[in-house]
Amino acid sequence: MDATSTVSRTNSNKRPFFGQKSLDEWLLGSVLVVGIIALFICIVLPIYSLLSKSVQNNAGEFVGLDNFLTFITTPSLSSSIGNSVSIALICTFIVTSLAFMAAYGLTRTKIPLKGTFRLVMALPILAPSLLPAISLVYLFGNQGIMKELLMGESIYGPIGIIIGSCFWTFPHALMIMVTALSNTDARLYESADVLGASPARTFFTVTLPGAKYGIISVAFVVFTLVITDFGVPKVIGGQFNVLATDIYKQVIGQQNFEMGAAVSVILLLPAILTFITDRWLQRRQSALLTSKAVPWVAPKRPIVDRFFLVTMIILSAIVIGIIAMAVYASLVTFWPYNLALSLNNYQFDLMDGGGWESYWNSIEMACYTAVIGTGFIFFQSYLVEKLGGYKVIKWFFHLFAILPLAVPGLVLGLAYIFFFNAPNNPLNGIYGTMAILVVCTISHFYTVCHLTGTTALKQIDPEFESVSASLKVPQIYTFWRVSLPVCLPAVLDIASYLFVNAMTTVSAVVFLYSYNTTLASVAVLNMDDAGDIAPAAAMAVMIMMTCMVAKIIHWFVGDVLLKSSQRWRVR
Amino acid sequence: MSKKNWMHRLAVLAGITTVSVAAHAAKTELTVYTAVEAEDLKKYAARFNEDHPDIKINWVRDSTGIVTAKLLAEKENPQADVVWGLAATSLMLLDGEGMLQSYKPKGFEKLSPKFRDNSAEPVWTGMDAWMAAVCYNTVEGEKLGLPKPTSWQDLTKPVYKGHIIMPNPNSSGTGFLDVSSWLQIFGEEKGWEYMDGLHQNISRYTHSGSKPCKLAAAGETPIGISFAFRAAKSKKKGAPLDIVFPSEGLGWDMEATSIIKGTDKLDAAKTLVDWTVSKKANEMYNKGYAVVAMPGIAKPVKYFPENAESMMIDNDFGWSAANRKAILKTWQERYDSKSDPK
Description:
Distance between the termini of chain B: 85 Å
Low-confidence stretches of chain A: 1-19
Oligomer: heterodimer
CATH class of the largest domain in chain B: Alpha Beta
Strand order of the largest sheet of chain A: 1-2
Number of domains of chain B: 2
Largest sheet of chain A: 2 strands, antiparallel
Number of helices of chain A: 22
Keywords (chain A): Membrane, Transmembrane, Transmembrane helix, Transport
Protein name (chain A): Iron(III) transport system permease protein
Mean pLDDT of chain B: 88
Family (chain A): Belongs to the binding-protein-dependent transport system permease family.
Helix content of chain A: 55-70%
CATH architecture of the largest domain in chain B: 3-Layer(aba) Sandwich
Membrane topology (chain A): Multi-pass membrane protein
Radius of gyration of chain B: 23 Å
Shape of chain A: globular
Order of helices and strands of chain B: HEHEHEHEEHEHHEHEHEEHHHH
Shape of chain B: globular
Low-confidence stretches of chain B: 18-25, 338-342
CATH architecture of chain A: Orthogonal Bundle
Organism (chain A): Marinomonas balearica
Order of helices and strands of chain A: HHHHHHHHHHHHEEHHHHHHHHHH
Number of strands of chain B: 10
């Protein structure tokens, strides 16, 4: 017997029929409409303004599919498609398996030091992507201290891209996976136990199906992140051409926006696939956390616990190793010929890139992004998941929310120029200000936050809404009293995810900052560009430490708040 | 509180107000896009303000590719007033889009003819030249038993197989500068033949023009094809580099200046551009660059050859610009495929 079927509910679509929509629903519905208009303006229109160039020539005339034909018929370009897909598939496989194991270890075992492990494994996301790139070169490059490990293979190529990509996508995957695995219903495990299922069988019939939605989301997120990223392949990809570096070559190297747009359109395909799969899964996903659910508490399982403890230690060691190398790089005077250590590289006001001012700008930008972004994204994802009706709007909302994931930051940044700087755009006043950086960053990182929010909300039984509706409790009250507290861990995750990404992002904002809004992450790039590798590493370390402080605050706030809001999880 | 104290305070307050109001009223702010090294920007602005304290420069700085892409993307509603210090080839591209304001600054005639736009209505003026150079890491070179190359032809010798890194001309202006200069030095047919030979020795092509020299400085490769300014900078920082200026001649591009069409601060922009071609400005450029626009100004710069200017090829920018697409296409077909040169 399939244990899940006993408690599954189809989904939120099956709401009791109360005739006309209540005033409450109209109100929340209008908030949803405002939300979708905002997404339309901040995501769809800018992207369209750039991608429409893919069917134009340099002079702006319509040329149909000519650009695509050129792309397909140029062997050196079309080979990138195969390269990109194979790299992305390998990374997806590695990251999804590792993230599942790590998330299982964090949520379903009794291993010690969970908080520490979680912090360590979030580290890769806390640092600008240049940091692991510098570190990989120092570790495995021609002068690298561990280059023998590659057995004569070069780090500059597919190997480098895979290691680098897995490193930076892992925390993204872990965040969704932990959310997917943290809500459980002990009754399922009890039933499995009573029915005499072996632990393996329980794992395959209860645990895996319950996390199915999360696993597939993670797979698609990782695939799309890897295939659209140009930072890692640019620095360490050597001669190995991928689609994202092709865009870089077209747009930055040759200022050929039309061809760059055509390649971007090709990159949108995986995102559309993600969207279709997501919709398809949605119909099959059952709410795990029903109103009758009892949280499952991991029993002591010495062998399992020991296995996961070892796994966590190995994963953490790899992460710490890569980070430590970069910290060391920031202290070295001149690698590899003068290894004397000093703190000179931290005197940013003496260097390129805007000095300490850009560091404070970054913090300001990250705070706005976290506060505004979390409020908007979580409330909207609540409405999408839990508000009755508005099916068409919700469908489009999901589509719009998935889009940014598929758009390389470089493309989004240029798209923002084309759209927001147009003389006839009434919003062109925000161009060149802090506001556009915040809007762009929220849009850029919308997808993972949206998926985290909906994954968390999906696990709450829609019965809560039905019950409150029949008791004539306004839905906003249910949101405040039930959904928000239950999802608080996810909300905090979203906030810190946004903060951290705002600190580290480069690809989109590099086109949008102005003279008084220079950013630390851009400074890292510029210092590296100017040959100041150690100061670049130093600024990257500063960014990482700031993000760690944010994470620690997240952790403490989480701990205090969660003690009161999550007490129901403890039996 | 004594009366005197009060008066004193009032006077100071009045003084501050007057000064700040006066400063505020007179100050024009110019948004200037540039690809000049950030550490030089403060100095450039400070020198300019010695003569024109009433104009404040707000710099927007990034690498050449990004600044050019940003300017082109902003074409419909330009944000920059002036571009000061961007590759002349980029400015020619912008000129082709009709984005530049024609203006002949005071002192235009004093610049050497190859450092100015010689059309009837000039739109840009040059500042200084940045030229190709080869970075040779003496420590790694010795370890691998590689002789120091002295010419472009040397680099095709089998001994260097897998030891040379150069920028990809499809991603980097420096890379294109190299390719177009070889085609001009050796002639088209011989030029491509030369690159066939060079390709056998290249371990990889990078996306940035300064990267090959940085990689040579860090010992990641013994030889990197890059440009002289970067090479001198790395050497100054302590890298064991020898900077080679190949004997056949050096490809070069210049940093140049122009006013963006449609600026509403045209007067201030003209004042700035007038200053950028002045003797004082040229002396300032000479701190980092061996060859500057005004003849007779340049003093030798450390790590640059004294005859730097005569080593520069007679670069035909018009020809490069006109054939850029075709050259890049041929290059891509020949060398940018999946098959890695081993």
